[in-house]
Design a protein that fits this description.
The protein is an alpha/beta fold. The chain folds into 2 domains: 133 residues, 3-Layer(aba) Sandwich (Rossmann fold), CATH 3.40.50; 83 residues, Arc Repressor Mutant, subunit A. 55% of the residues lie in helices and 13% in strands. It has a 6-stranded parallel sheet with strand order 2-1-3-4-5-6, with helices on both faces. Helix 9 packs across helix 10. The radius of gyration is 18 Å and the shape is globular. The chain starts with a helix and ends with a helix.
């Protein structure tokens, strides 16, 4: 029987590896995620020593990583994962909302940052979002990130009109293919614009670029927060 493309997409599951040292928490997360029809927990680790090895072996789509585990340095681990497994998306699950933690992990390449006090539905939304190439930041730490860039000079004036449009769409969670469709340009052109935006703003991730846009009032922080809240409730 021939399977249509839409059915194939429906059957595809997001493979998740859970890195969490507390057994009860790790088991509870696995039960929660495995209830979702589009998510499958393919493995887990309890300390940092075996994280990279297991990621390379299991090839998950998303690593849900506790920021505090034995034998684990989260920023260094994130850099190593991004360098050796560039197709894996990292979501940090943390009890801390310290600026150096949040900013450091996002700069290292994490695609998402959640607090352990966030609702379970947000964890699911975050995994689904990063698997689609988006970023996900807990609304509870968004203010910390905005404050971290407010002291920097406003360099948005260096962007072209088209780059500004691309940045605004990035801030609203649009992926490169979606931006290409919205602006009727090729995805390759979008990638070039994103690269240029990163270079001009002196940033390394989409999250940092979006924070520049928010802190400079190019987009509304309240509007972005409202969109995140709506997504978490969906």
């Amino acid at each position: 029987m021939r399977v249509r493309a839409g059915q194939e997409r429906e059957m595809k599951k997001i493979k998740v590896l859970v890195a969490e040292d507390h057994h009860v928490v790790r088991s509870a997360i696995a039960v929660l995620l495995n209830r979702e029809p589009d998510i499958e927990v393919v493995g887990d680790v309890a300390d940092g020593r075996h994280l990279l090895e297991e990621v390379e072996r299991l090839q998950p789509d998303v690593v849900l990583m506790d920021a505090q585990m034995p034998h684990h340095q989260p920023v260094e681990a994130t850099r190593a994962l991004r360098a050796q497994c560039p197709n894996v998306h990292i979501v940090v699950l943390s009890a801390y909302r310290l600026e150096e933690y949040v900013v450091g992990l996002l700069k290292a390449g994490a695609a998402g940052y959640l607090l352990k006090e966030d609702p379970p539905s947000m964890l699911i939304q975050a995994i689904q979002a990063v698997d689609q190439g988006q970023e996900w930041i807990s609304p509870r730490v968004a203010g910390i990130l905005v404050d971290s860039v407010r002291s920097k000079d406003n360099v948005l004036a260096r962007l072209t009109d088209r780059e500004t449009e691309v940045l605004q769409l990035m801030a609203h969670g649009r992926t490169n293919p979606q931006i290409a469709e919205d602006l009727v340009i090729s995805e390759h052109t979008v990638k070039n614009h994103v690269t240029s935006i990163f270079r001009k703003l002196g940033v390394e991730t989409r999250v940092e670029a979006v924070l520049y846009a928010i802190s400079s009032s190019l987009v509304s922080a309240e509007e972005i927060k409202h969109e995140l809240d709506l997504s978490a409730q969906a």
